[in-house]
Amino acid sequence: MGDYRGVDFYGLDDLLTEEQRMVRDTVRDFVSAEVVPIIAGHARDGTFPLELVPKLAELGVLGPTLPEEYGGAALDDVCYGLICQELERGDSALRSFASVHSSLAMHAIFAFGSEEQKRRWLPRMARGEKIGCFGLTEPDHGSDPAGMSTRATRIDGGHSLHGSKMWITNGTIADVAVVWAQAESGVRGFLVEKGMKGFSAPEMKGKLSLRASVTSELVMEDVEVPEGNLLPGAKGLGAALACLNQARFGIAWGSVGAAQACFEEALAYQRTRVQFGKPLAGFQLNQAKFADMLTEITKAQLLCHRLGSLKSAGKAAHAQISLAKRNNARMALDVARTCRTMLGANGILDEYHSMRHAANLEAVYTYEGTHEIHTLILGAAVTGIEAFR
Amino acid sequence: MKLVACVKRVPDTASPVRPAADGRSIDLGGVSFVLNPYDEYAVEECLRIKDARGGEVTVLSASGADASKELRHCLAMGADRAVLVKDAAVDRDARSTAALLAAALKGMPFDIAFFGRQAVDHDNAQVGLIVATLLGLPAVAEVSQVEVGSGAVTVRREAEGGIEVHEVPLPCVLTAQKGLNEPRYASLKGIMKAKKMQIEEMALEIPDSLLDVLRMEPPPPRPQGRVVGEGAAAVPALVRLLRDEAKVL
Ligand SMILES: Cc1cc2nc3c(=O)[nH]c(=O)nc-3n(C[C@H](O)[C@H](O)[C@H](O)COP(=O)(O)OP(=O)(O)OC[C@H]3O[C@@H](n4cnc5c(N)ncnc54)[C@H](O)[C@@H]3O)c2cc1C
């Protein structure tokens, strides 16, 4: 189908099973045919391609790792990583949608929800009929969510939620928000539904990054949330952080997809663009850029594959996930910026993809734990001394 | 309805194709293989007929190479059965391929055997029609629309300057034209389901190839194009060259 082949200098395809390759190729073809042609327009207009949601659902990329009884495809972790890689090859906004919907919202319900909550939400979310979001960050609490000010007060038959969340991906288009709030018993997760009295989710405008993604505020003015919407298994901030680990794993893979897209674009461009009588790719300065980028992409891919094996074996420590998220998001950002330079003036046009990826990756660098926060997580893992405060 | 789609594993046309050192085959280094795109239309059409009217879709391939990936792709799209006729040769001519497939089809009752109009490797566009001849069945090549009635199908094919409409009694053989439909993506659930399915292997007597490939050579490089000017100003020079040099006017 598409001509895009990705970067596989170390023959890492050999590490994949036949199904993993099929999953990757299927999502790759889908992105080539359905995403690449339309994504620049959406980024320009600042709109999320909602029209893709039913197609993504039919393909099976929403909640793909969940068991079939909840509408998933029971895929393994490496398949999930490959899905993220291919979606983000199209645009980080699309991968962000999928990460938040699947790894944060669906995962929270699957891991911490009651059987009734799972049956009510998960199959419909897998079919794309209901969209999920995940509200942890607040205007005054970003890197340090433990200090959150959203409160859940006990009332007859449930809780009353008061407070606001910010920077919430999918917020405005979501039917269900997994909202984290401080209750008497500590931090708890609640399923806040679209249309509940006192709940609104206005979209944040003016983003220069992830323009094809919806980012919103969640405003809760004494929203009465029935007992049945409290996630029974989510007790304490650890539950929220466990969801983030799922999503960060996907970001580590996704970033590599964005980097590969830029690399391919710069390579194709420099092979054909002639200056000083020969193709740009023939100059040593440019070849040094390609050599460095190829090396960094390959190293990042190796991190993903090993992390995938660790995660499949249930052995991926959160600091190991941090290392991959931290390295790969920064790697991709560097690669995207370099590729942008290699396209010359064309590189600033949205007809080309590298600058859009670079702008997107600024947000990827910051969300799901900023680069600096992951540095501190690794610092603590290495030294045994926490340096967060 | 019983539907059989005959499919072939072919080199991806985006792969570089070069003659191998023996000068008689293709250098397989760096070549990736895919399901023949025309066959994908055939599989999709069978699946659509099954979706509308019920039945069973079998995909059938004769291959000397490992075509399990391509067959699994069809299973992941939704086919019910995959049958692989193990061939001794990796490559063979259209006539003997058709003989092999016809022998396989004799053992599986069907209403429609669907082929792609051609495989994008040799581009012969023969196998489906030879199979029909060997089985003594009616056939229509390059169909662009299929309507299933009772005991017959009505198919359309584009012909020069118009559209032919044929009514064909079942069982029959059809070959798919590009654009017959838009093949679905294999769903991820389908891929997992296909993983658990068995590919049935069939051993048949292997016919001899009737064709010997003596030599394969890359086509001569195309001469460079020439720019004679730009815009309307270039027209007189172009007309002159087309008349005097190319002699096409
Ligand atoms: C597009 C987008 C989508 C998002 N989607 C979601 C979502 O769906 N759900 C959700 O809950 N959140 C979401 N976020 C929020 C994101 O996770 C936070 O922005 C992130 O955690 C950082 O918080 P902050 O922006 O408040 O930065 P701050 O915490 O204020 O940090 C500002 C700067 O200070 C640094 N810093 C902070 N603490 C320290 C320290 N101890 N030592 C050294 N440096 C430090 C940071 O690294 C950063 O460079 C999203 C953000 C963006 C941009």
Concise overview:
The complex is a heterodimer of chains A (389) and B (249). Chain A contains 10 helices and 10 strands. Chain A is α+β, with helices and mostly antiparallel strands and 389 residues long.
Topology:
The complex is a heterodimer of chains A (389) and B (249).
Chain A: H1 18-45, H2 53-59, H3 77-90, H4 92-112, H5 115-126, E1 132-135, E2 151-155, E3 158-169, E4 176-183, E5 186-193, E6 199-200, E7 215-226, E8 230-235, H6 237-272, E9 274-275, E10 278-279, H7 284-312, H8 318-342, H9 354-366, H10 371-383
Helix pairs in contact in A: 1-3, 3-4, 3-6, 4-5, 4-6, 6-7, 6-8, 6-9, 7-8, 8-9, 8-10
Chain B: E1 2-6, E2 9-11, E3 33-35, H1 37-53, E4 56-63, H2 68-77, E5 81-86, H3 94-106, E6 112-116, H4 127-135, E7 139-148, E8 152-159, E9 162-169, E10 172-176, H5 188-196, E11 199-202, H6 235-244
Parallel strand pairs in B: 1-4, 1-6, 4-5, 5-11, 6-10, 7-10
Antiparallel strand pairs in B: 2-3, 7-8, 8-9
The complex binds flavin-adenine dinucleotide (FAD).
Flavin-adenine dinucleotide (FAD) is lined by residues 100, 134-137, 142-143, 167-169, 210, 215, 363, 366-368, 370, 372-373, 376, 388 of chain A.
